[in-house]
Amino acid sequence: MYEYKTQGTCSTAIHFDIKDGKVYSVSFDRGCDGNLKALSILAEGLPAEELIRKLKGLRCGKKQTSCGDQFARALEQYRPAAGAGEKSP
After folding, report:
1. 85 in a domain, yes or no?
2. Residue 88 has pLDDT above 60, yes or no
3. Count of domains forming the chain
4. How many angstroms separate the first and last alpha carbons of the chain?
């Protein structure tokens, strides 16, 4: 299980697993409960690369980032290198 401390959002951390390049068991600490539960459900089983592509750069209101953007950054940080095993937290 990976943990990513967010910056600039109402959520404070994101927890998730990556297995075979796909994302599982996503949860957020704090933030907009309903929206983040929905994001967690929709992300389940999707390739990390697809989520990064779709979520990176999203903003929340006037903020420079969003929970989705922070999730993309977390996935970028923890994704395994091509051809390598899973990265350890």
Report:
1. no
2. no
3. 1
4. 8
**Pairwise CA distance, residues 77 & 79, whole Å:** 6
Show Cβ contacts of residue 19 under 8 Å, excluding neighbours closer than 6 positions: 86
Determine the Cα–Cα distance for residues 89 and 87; give it in Å rounded to an integer. 7
Determine, yes or no, domain membership for 87: no
Sequence-separated (6 or more) residues with CB below 8 Å from residue 88: none
- Answer whether 0.85 is exceeded by the pTM: yes
Taking each helix axis as running N to C, give the angle between helix 48-55 and helix 67-78, from 0 to 180 degrees, rounded to the nearest 10.
Answer: 140
Place of tokens 């600490």: 29
Could you list the beta-strand ranges (E) of 2-50: 2-5, 11-19, 22-30
Give tens-digit pLDDT for 7-48: 999 999 999 999 999 999 999 999 999 999 999 999 999 999
86 pLDDT band (50/70/90 cuts)? low
34 in any annotated domain: yes
